[in-house]
Amino acid sequence: MASTGNEPRAARSTAPGTRHPFETGWTAFAAILMIFGGAMAIFQGISAIAKDDVFVSTRNYVFQFNLTGWGWIHLILGIVILIAGIALFTGAMWARVVGIVLAGLGALANFMWLPHYPLWSIVLIAMDVFIIWALCAGPGKRDDF
Prior knowledge:
5 helices; single chain; 61% helix; 145 residues
């Protein structure tokens, strides 16, 4: 029997595997955060490559790269994170795994970026941690009786 779309939601989604990947909304929210965070990393990278005067360099920091090197790291990572955020809208499991890995790499890159732009780095680290949590939580299981 074909679905006309007029049945109640419970009648349409009782078969296994017919659940929508965004039932709880956490995956969609993580995707939006990844797109936003990727775009911000792209802008951060472009600004660092252009040697903008916004960034301050400290001399005695363990992870010493020049500003242009960090700019390229953030630019490339930002592009990949943005693409992975868009891929999360498919609801595929591989996109969730890639999203978790990239959010972890983004948090690590922003941790090492702390001496250049501390407040923004802390904000992006918090976003990356929330993305990892949201992608690991995933859609909740329901009991359909």
